[in-house]
Amino acid sequence: MKTVLEKYMKVRELVSELVEEIDQIADREEKIETVNYVRKLIHQVSPYNHHPVDFVEWVKTKDVEGNEYNPNTVFPPEMKLLEQSIKEDGFTQPTVTNPETDIRRIVDGFHRRKTVVTNTAINKSTYGRVPVTTIRSEKASLADRMASTIRHNRARGVHGIDEMVNIVSVLKQECGMTDAWIVKNIGMDVDELLRLKQISGVIELFKDKEFSQSWE
Fold first, then answer.
1. Does the pLDDT at position 82 exceed 60?
2. Which string of DSSP letters, residue by residue, matches 36-91?
3. Of 132, 187, 180, 182, which is closest to residue 155 (Cα–Cα)?
4. What is the DSSP pairing of strand 57-60 with strand 95-99?
5. Reported pTM
């Protein structure tokens, strides 16, 4: 039976051989896809594979698309600062995505992806690709993805009122989420949710009797 040290040395040897093989791949696109694949396999056996950031892969921008509900707006000065940050420091945060049939749908990081599309220097440095992570599979429903987007935005202190009203409407009417679910998963209190529902003017949003009674 091999000792821990022997296993460690064997792994180091195998990794060194793998790195040499990858380094000899002449085609850049093939090399990128190979590195993505190797990272994916390592992620599967990683003790941290329950954290999406444990596996970051580089995906072509054409295969990464935004969502229709993100309430985060970045104004021109902040957008320029984001571009400058990426040019000076490189990408330090990946775009969070959910895989669909042919694309990756953005959950968080739309503007980081946008820099690759609109800024020539950044696009050149990433070879037209975006660093992405994949949300947990159990969080792939529309309601969970919307909640995740809002949590990311609110944690940074940014969100728009009109868009938040729209999100609450979608969660209530299209996804059938309760007020209790919204309060828990989006990080707002009961009074804030009530204000958003009042702003919407949609009577159907007030059908949650349990929470309606708590406001009386």
1. yes
2. HHHHHHHHHH-TTTTSGGG--EEEEGGGEE--S-------HHHHHHHHHHHHHH--
3. 187
4. unpaired
5. 0.71
